[in-house]
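Let us practice reading a record.
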Amino acid sequence: MKAIQITIDVTVTQSPEIVWDHYTNPKHIVNWNFASDDWHCPKAENNPIVGGTYFSRMEAKDGSFGFDFKAVYDEVIPNEKLIYTLQDGRKVTTLFEKTGNTTNVITVFEAENQNPVDMQKAGWQAILNNFKTYVEGNKS
């Protein structure tokens, strides 16, 4: 059975270089990698090279729930593309496309089987929207 592909995207009013840095640098990841204000990302580690690993911890701020997000990079083109495989075998591709003074961030990921597709799309899109808000408000 072929996996369902889900696409999310956002346009960020920054260059691909700034967007890439904020997307891949753990000092930034911990500031945007959560879907709502009652969650946070207390820890992130990232080595964006082929064979390198990504790790982040997402937790409810009240301590009621949390999970680790782990992946291994399959392809990395700085400022342009990331392809990685999640620990459960699902593939994720993120593209960074320059359009004038903005960067379109497009992520395509394979759906998992435990949650409805609409819920998965909404959660990943909320994180990407949070990323946009963070990048546009933090230029360093």
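A brief commentary: The mean pLDDT is 96.
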